[in-house]
Structures are given as structure tokens and as C-alpha cells.
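Re-run requested by the PI after the first attempt was lost when the workstation crashed. Everything re-entered from the original request form. Ligand of interest: molybdate ion.
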Amino acid sequence: MIPVEEALARVLALAMPLPAEDVPLAEAAGRVMLGSAIAARAQPPFAASAMDGYAMAATDARPGARLRVVGTAQAGARFAAAVAPGVAVRIFTGAPMPQGTDHVVIQEDVEVSGDTITLRAVGNTNVRPMGADFAAGARLDGPRRLRPADLALLAAMNVPHVRAARRPEVAFIATGDELVMPGATPGPDQIVASNLFALRAMAEAEGARTRLLPIARDTLDSLDTVLELAEGADVVVTIGGASVGDHDLVAQAVRARGFAPAFWKIAMRPGKPLMAGRLNEALMLGLPGNPVSAIVCGHLFLLPALRALQGLRDVAPRPVAARLGRAVAENGPRAHYMRARLVPGDPLPVATPFDSQDSALLGLLAEAGALLIRPPHAPALAEGAEVACLPL
Ligand SMILES: Nc1nc2c(c(=O)[nH]1)N[C@H]1C(S)=C(S)[C@@H](COP(=O)(O)OP(=O)(O)OC[C@H]3O[C@@H](n4cnc5c(N)ncnc54)[C@H](O)[C@@H]3O)O[C@H]1N2
Ligand code: MOO
């Protein structure tokens, strides 16, 4: 059994970034931009009015001043002539500041009479300097998962498409004679396949495309048939059949198809029977079948691998500090990822592990806000001790 950190390093060694492609901005939400985007021009590209009002020289902007209005500047159409002291230009938000002006008095503070205005009050300059948002040549550096605000920034930079790693495709294979899909009528000894729905949602939220393949039965033939359907996927995830029972045939089935193992079994709880390696062109993760074990392994290994395949760095899960909501006993030789309730606290949130840590209990996982990390052989800790957690 290898430690969790070593297992993650071996998985990531198999997760080389996928080839890059050009992605139009309209389709780039959530994609990982590689390289750097460079602003083709400054924003705003000229000093611009921030308000609707009257532009003038700052020396004219004093209460009581009377100014003749000599023209109009609006967004998209500047006032082309230079403006002398003593006169003003009607101006609207976003319009370029006319030459000779550097102050805008908002229209609420102005009294209009024919083509003359009288300033009742004078506030801020209400001018956005050229480049106030960003200068020409400004960069947005990758690798970076693009959020909605990034898309708006790239658009303003006049960057119409980005380079992004191809989205990884993940094939999920649930295995076991006992499984039926949700909505089917299970036989008396059957249960409903569950964990793959969490795993699929997690993978898609991480930018992957997914294939849910038919459930493989506990025979080498059935496993082989379904593995065939996984051909072409970047990542193959099997669920169940990873342990030591007579019907745990996944290792045998993948070996027959050329599997090169990176490890099998890790010092972790839940998730001990995890298997990983290369299945021809694909990264393969053999997750344990217990619902919580599979999902915890998904957080710890599948999601970092998907990030790495998309070219992200620092892909490991990021623990946060919390205080223990109750005492915990000494830990054994395997790192324990305890399902815990997480509530806000000052200065640290409070993590309270559930009494039962049975890896079959999806109800508790659904209630859990975090996985409380107990390293191998960690000593007993009292309530209030500082611990590390992975928020879920
Ligand atoms: N003698 C030993 N027995 C077991 C060991 C061991 O070291 N020695 N390890 C235990 C641990 S830890 C785990 S975890 C499980 C993992 O076993 P498998 O990966 O072989 O999983 P299965 O036996 O196929 O299933 C376990 C459990 O989970 C249910 N299951 C399976 N797939 C799904 C699914 N897609 N959705 C919902 N539930 C699923 C299955 O019905 C079983 O109840 O082995 C222990 N045994
Ligand atoms: O490791 Mo198993 O995943 O403890 O339930």
C-alpha cells in the first residue's frame, strides 16, 4: 500500500496535458486557457466620460459658472473640434472627452437655458482616463480556468478566441451483477447503481465530457465487452470489482487488454483498493465499489487528473484549516478522510466528523460539508484542535 501523496503523484505522471485547440470566446466558459492573452488596445481606448452631463475645462468647473454649449459628444461619436475655455460640450456616458476638456458636470447639477448652462454644483471630474481598466499589451496569463468575468475581460481585450487543451473524455463503467440503473426494477438481491452519477457530475464540473457505459457484469466477457466501448476515451474509470473477492475481476479484465499498472491499493480510508495505470492510450482509474469510497477517490484522484489533462498546475486538492467539533481517536496506518459536517466559525470553521464512517452511507456523504483529513498514525485530538479539511 502506497501513501495517498505517492499515489496522486503516480496518477498525475500519467496525466499529460491533452493537445490544444482554438476555442471561440463564446464557447470558452470553463475551459482552461493556455498561454497568455494580450490586449490589442487599451480600455478605455480614450479618456471617456463616466456620466451624462457637460464636458468643460476643469478651470471652468465652479459653481455659478455660465457656459455656452457648442456641440455634443456621445458614445461612438466624438465632438471633433477642440474646446476653448468658457464653453462646454453636451456629453453622454462613454463618449470620448473632447480635446480641451477634462471635467464633466452631471446634468442634475446644471440649469439649462437655451444654449447656455449654469453650474449649480460641481462634483468629481467624472472622467475615466485612457487605459483605466487595462493598457494595450496587458496580459491575462494561463493556464487559467476561464470564469464568466474572464470572458468579458478577454472580449474587452479584443481577443476573439483562446488556446485551450481539448476537453478530456471520461468513460465510466460500473461493474457488478447486483447493479441496475435508476428507474429499473431491481431483483430481490439487487441495488441501484449510484456513485457513477456523482462521479460523472464531478467530472463534468471539472470540464470533462463523459460517457456512461452499460453496467458490466461480473464476468471477464462482460467486462471485456464494455471496456471495448471505452475505446478512444482519455480516461477510463471502472467502479467496483477492485478488491480481493472471487468476483472482483476488473484487474484481470484490464490486464488482458494491455493494462500497465501504476499501483493497486493505497494507504487510505475509504478507498484502499484503488487501482491506477495506463490502459493503452487512456489513463485508467479502478475505483472501489463502495459508494462513498468511489466518490472520495474521485475527489482525490480523478479531479486532479482531469485538471492536469487540461493543462492546469497545482492540481492537488487544497485543504483548508478547521477546528474539531468533537474529539477524535488516534488514527491507524491509513490516511482517513472522515466525512464531517462543516459549519462557519471564527476564526476557523468547525468540522465535526459523523459517528459512522461506513463507506456505504450516501446519506451522510450528502450531508457532509468536508472530508476531515486524518494522516496515517495521527494522534488522538481534543475538541477544538486544528485540523485540515477538504471542503466538498
Ligand atoms: N476481504 C476483504 N474484503 C474487502 C476488502 C479487503 O481488503 N479485504 N476491502 C473492502 C473495501 S475497503 C472496499 S472499498 C470494498 C471494495 O470492493 P470492490 O471495489 O471490489 O467493490 P464491490 O465488491 O464491487 O462493491 C463493494 C460494494 O459497493 C457496492 N457497489 C459497487 N458498485 C456500485 C455502484 N456503481 N453503485 C452503488 N453501489 C455499488 C456493491 O454492491 C458492494 O456493496 O471491498 C471491501 N471488501
Ligand atoms: O477503503 Mo473501503 O473504500 O474503506 O470502504
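Saved to the shared folder this time. Residues 291-309 form the longest helix (19 residues).
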